[in-house]
């Protein structure tokens, strides 16, 4: 990395305290380098990291289905399995938050649930 790039990166990081961001880099079949799936979560970094991971893993899978080559191949190996909602309940941000605070969901499970709800991957009840 060039010194200018390092300085820009450090300025970006310090300008976004408490904010977890990510984007997917990929190469098209024609050799064009692109980025997509710019995502950002803020509030609880230990959980936000997993929400970003879930979204980028999903985007990486979708990009490869379209014939693109993703730069971060490890995203394709992530198991995005979600925990089942408690019997008789549907996931909501509030229910997930309550279970996380009670220690019944790990940071990873909570982050994945938040991202999955935000992407519309699981039906959620209205809060």
Question: Could you outline the blueprint of secondary structure elements for this entry?
Answer:
Blueprint: H1 3-15, E1 19-27, E2 33-42, H2 45-65, E3 69-70, H3 93-101, H4 107-119
Antiparallel strand pairs: 1-2, 1-3
Helix content percent band: 40-55%
Number of helices, where a helix is a run of at least 4 consecutive DSSP H or I residues: 4
Helix-strand makeup class: alpha+beta
Strand line-up of the largest beta sheet: 2-1-3
What series of H and E elements makes up the topology? HEEHEHH
Assembly state of the chains shown: single chain
How is the main sheet built? Answer: 3 strands, antiparallel
Rough outline = elongated
What is the rounded distance between the termini? 46 Å
Q: How confident overall, as mean pLDDT? A: 87
- The tally of strands reads 3
What fraction of the residues are assigned to beta strands by DSSP?
Answer: 15-25%
Global Rg: 17 Å
- Show unreliable segments: 4-16
What does this structure look like?
- This is Lipoprotein.
- It comes from Rheinheimera marina.
- By secondary structure, the chain is of the alpha+beta class.
- It has helices at residues 3-15, 45-65, 93-101, 107-119; strands at 19-27, 33-42, 69-70.
- It has a three-stranded antiparallel beta sheet, covered by helices on one side.
- The termini are far apart.
- The relative contact order is 0.15.
Keywords:
single chain; 127 residues; alpha+beta; 3-stranded antiparallel sheet; 4 helices; 3 strands; 17% strand; Lipoprotein
